[in-house]
Amino acid sequence: MHTSSIQQNILAELDHELAQTRKTLERVPFEQADYKPHPKSMSLWQLATHVVNLLAFNTLFVQHDARDFLDPNAPKPGPTPTSPEELLARFDEYSAMLRQALNESDDEKLTHNFRLHRGEQTIMEMPKGSAIRIMGLNHSIHHRGQLTVYLRLLDIPVPGLYGPSADEK
């Protein structure tokens, strides 16, 4: 009987979603970086950068047991990319780091809790495997969905992510 592991399931899902996310990021027009569909929205470039930086956050879930937002020495993403090439290079780098961290982990480690907090205030505490899925992958997919709306509003062909898009039919 073949049993599937938490680690292998996450890696398979990650590989699929990373490929779809890269397709989306490749279409982000840097010349419209400041575009916002609403005053409360992030700019196009802020959103694209956030999608990329979430990969580093995912790696944190795998490799550490906690993250305090008040810790001035906690790891932070690098400066905002200043070109599409820099954005995609960071995406590829952070994707590779996350894959490596997951490959070096195992099911037992992924059942350990991860605590996200601000000083004494716990924001989230759950098993690492769940944190990766909920706060990592689902969070990234949510923001990638927002990015596709920005693309649509800017009249840029939207890539098919789970089958053909309206632009690919």
UniProtKB/TrEMBL annotation:
SUPFAM superfamilies found in the cross-reference section: DinB/YfiT-like putative metalloenzymes
TM annotation in the entry: none
Domain DinB-like as annotated: residue spans: 14-147
Alphabetical list of InterPro entries matching this protein: DinB-like, DinB/YfiT-like
Protein name, as recorded: DinB family protein
Origin species: Hymenobacter glaciei
